[in-house]
Design goal:
alpha/beta; 7-stranded mixed beta sheet; 7 helices; 11 strands
């Protein structure tokens, strides 16, 4: 009966794994047009349509229309950014590529009944994870939410603040998993999945 919210689903690796292996119900969020098409194809091919709903929207800290700025226009690509032309380091970047996009918040999705309060959340959007957390304040206080996996860039103060925010909501950081997840070299040095569990 678990609910998994996959924010930044891309082509559906986490979505398919969660629905097919664990049997939970998945809500997959992916705003980029080509990734969204492949995500839906993977849902159908893997026969998990009855346990999955995919939304072609972005999540942020506000609700409204803006641009999704694309790093490139290639299926399966990442490092796109909603609402501002920045890279994963939140530095300005110009690619000349964008598409119109609607964004909402996790709190709004839960409050209006579009999704139930998730049991597990994964957030990987390559930059504005802090805004998505800001748009989930009420949901973070819901005791039904047991665990959050969020990719954070430890080079950014806004991302380091997410750790403190989640701790203040009653979550503890799985430090035993963190050392394995943080990239030690390359352009994404300091970036890695942080796992938080309630209690």
């Amino acid at each position: 009966d678990s609910i998994f919210l996959d924010v930044g689903a891309n082509v559906g690796i986490y979505t398919v794994l969660a629905a097919k292996v664990t049997g939970c119900y998945v809500y997959a969020i992916e705003p980029e047009s080509q990734n969204y098409a492949i995500l839906n194809r993977n849902i159908v091919v893997n026969k998990i349509l009855e346990r999955t709903t995919a939304y072609a929207i972005a999540l942020s800290d506000i609700t409204g229309f803006d641009n999704l700025y694309l790093s490139d226009f290639v299926s399966g690509s990442s490092c796109h950014s909603y609402g501002e032309q920045v890279d994963f380091n939140l530095e300005p970047v110009q690619t000349g590529l964008h598409q119109g996009c609607y964004a909402t918040t996790i709190d709004e999705l839960v409050e209006n009944g579009s999704i139930p309060c998730p049991t597990y959340v994964k957030i990987d959007v390559d930059g504005i994870e802090h805004k998505i957390i800001d748009g989930a304040k009420k949901t973070l206080d819901n005791q039904n939410l047991k665990s959050i996996l969020v990719e954070l860039n430890t080079n950014l103060s806004k991302h380091r603040q997410v750790v403190d925010e989640l701790k203040s909501c009653g979550f503890r950081l799985r430090k035993d998993k963190l050392s394995e997840a943080i990239r030690k070299e390359g352009p994404f040095k300091g970036v890695g999945n942080h796992i938080f569990q309630r209690g």
